[in-house]
């Protein structure tokens, strides 16, 4: 571990010439990007992990925003944005999914999410009625109970007290 720490410190103090050259080239590209008025973002070419970290550092020093997207550890897509054109969360999600950013599709998705939220609120305000039996028990036993006029007559019937029957 001490040897590795010493090696890392030495690399940080005296970076290899190709890293210095790459950093200068990235600084030139970033300054050209800043001066380009019609470009809100720029995707640089694919690069390895160290080159990406150098570009992130250069972009931060220049006052730009940079993001790496994707799961591929060797060459995930990288995008540099001007601060005034910083991406929204939806735009970043589209880039992470590997899709091209389309504001019209994003607006449609936002509208659908709002509509779903409104429907959910409406369902919470007016809950469905509590579940009940699918049919009335009286229908099931109509042959035993009889029609409604017969039930009314049965209620008015007098019991024969001699036999002890109830109505």
Automatic annotation (TrEMBL):
InterPro entries per UniProt: R3H_dom, R3H_dom_sf, R3H_sperm-antigen, SPAG7
> Record's CDD domains?
R3H_sperm-antigen (cd02636)
Instruction: Spell out the PROSITE patterns in the cross-references.
Output: R3H
Q: Where is the R3H domain?
A: 20-83
Q: Where in this protein does the record put region Disordered?
A: 86-167
Cite the GO molecular-function annotations of the record: nucleic acid binding
Q: Which SUPFAM superfamilies match?
A: R3H domain
Pfam families named among the record's database cross-references? R3H (PF01424)
Q: Basic and acidic residues compositional bias: what residue ranges?
A: 93-114
Q: What is this protein called?
A: SPAG7 protein
Q: What species is this protein from? A: Ptilorrhoa leucosticta
**Protein's gene:** Spag7
